[in-house]
Amino acid sequence: MTNHKFLEGISLDPYVxxxxxxxxxxxxxxxxxxxGEVICDVPVSDSSIVNKAVDSSRKALKGAWAKVTPxxxxxxxxxxxxxxxxxxxxxxxxxxxDSGKPLREAKGDIETSARYFEYYGGIADxxxxxxxxxxxxxxxxxxxxxxxxxxxxxxxxxxxxxTARGLAPALAAGAxxxxxxxxxxxLTALMLPYYLERAGVPAGVVNVICGPGxxxxxxxxxxxxxxxxxxxxxxxxxxxVMLAAASHVSSVTMELGGKSPVVVLADADQDAxxxxxxxAIFTNAGQVxxxxxxxxxxxxxxxxxxxxxxxxxxxxxxxxxxxxPDIGPIITHPQLLKIENIVNESxxxxxxxxxxxxxxKPEGLGGxxxxxxxxxxxDPSTKCVQEEIFGPVLTVQIADxxxxxxxxxxxxxxxxxxxxxxxxxxxxxxxxxxxxxGQVFINQFFAGGVETPFGGTKNSGFGxxxxxxxxxxxxxxxTVTARI
Length: 484
Description:
- Strand 14 and strand 15 (369-370) form a beta hairpin.
- This protein folds into 2 domains: 5-256 and 462-483, Aldehyde Dehydrogenase, Chain A, domain 1 (3-Layer(aba) Sandwich); 261-449, Aldehyde Dehydrogenase, Chain A, domain 2 (3-Layer(aba) Sandwich), CATH 3.40.309.
- It is α/β, with parallel strands linked by helices.
- It has helices spanning 47-62, 70-86, 88-99, 103-121, 159-172, 187-199, 213-221, 235-246, 270-282, 299-313, 333-348, 383-386, 402-409, 425-434, and strands at 15-16, 19-20, 27-32, 37-43, 138-146, 149-153, 176-180, 206-208, 228-232, 251-255, 261-264, 294-298, 352-355, 359-360, 369-370, 373-376, 393-399, 414-415, 417-421, 439-442, 457-458, 461-462, 475-483.
């Protein structure tokens, strides 16, 4: 347990069938990554608790939840949004403490989490089928039915917002859910049941269990009672999740990260492009799946742009997320070492280091920080070009012209998002058609919102979250045809 003021009165036990389960046995620490100190120890849910959680969700699917009308589901989702907003200040502080991200970013995440429930609350009573014209002797129509009990494997970088992103459409469609937050950042997911209960969500509809992937995630994704798995994480783990889901023919939504390009052409508004590039890579210290981690820039404007970029980076501050620094900590020490290794290997392979490049040690903090780093790589096969680093490291590729920029931008096995800065609408749209990516941003990175479908191509995964497209994962279509 913890004595931290933001967690007073919050149970860290798994939430199953509408109540907290008192668990004895293994626990897992969650750390403040800015200090390296343990915030609290969270009980680990083993396979027996996983079984109870899935059984509870399956029972609710045919029981209390099935009796809730779509209109009442809509009202429940909107009430969840209201409850989250009422406790937004505490949630943001917990999120910042647990993940290390700057408090201003955590506040935005909490509002976005509420918005997901609000958005899907507006569609829950409007999911309807079609009639199919087969001629005068038949009546044929389709019905939308909840897909079943769903599993949600949540990443550590956006804990509550990613939970809401999958849970809200699942509930809107009438499905039930078992949530497994990342063991590094479980706290806001463990707080979520309080808001669900106050919103009137029946017991068993949402269960929250915690623990490492091997202990908790693996038996959850392999459970025969799970009908759909929504996963956000690494390519390697995603492949393992798909194999587990395939064993019982469960559908999956896979969001597996990226190596996303930001193209800056010579005709672009250079000041706006600079702000966009900084935001794209240094939000949450680069620990964002859709981070603009590659700058592809036309040669004719590269030198002054990079000079301005490096000058801005040199002004950045480090610190605890709660103190709103420019750059917060890296989530774990192993992740910090991974970043350092890729940077060093890329430099050894010929990349030019023009800013940062080292582990940072801010005064008074014992946590895990890395300097905002810029590498210029001429060889597209360099690690910093091809591998997802998940840290504050920007790789620069110099393009001779627009066509070369497009070629470089599309030159990895990832395809999550891509951005372009240009005043030429024709070039922007040509780029949008050329690039293999799930989302393309024009003259603003991270454009869009809750309403815009999100997902990847190639090694970035498949399936779509956000927007109305996300609902398709959580209902099945039944066709009824009658001769009359």
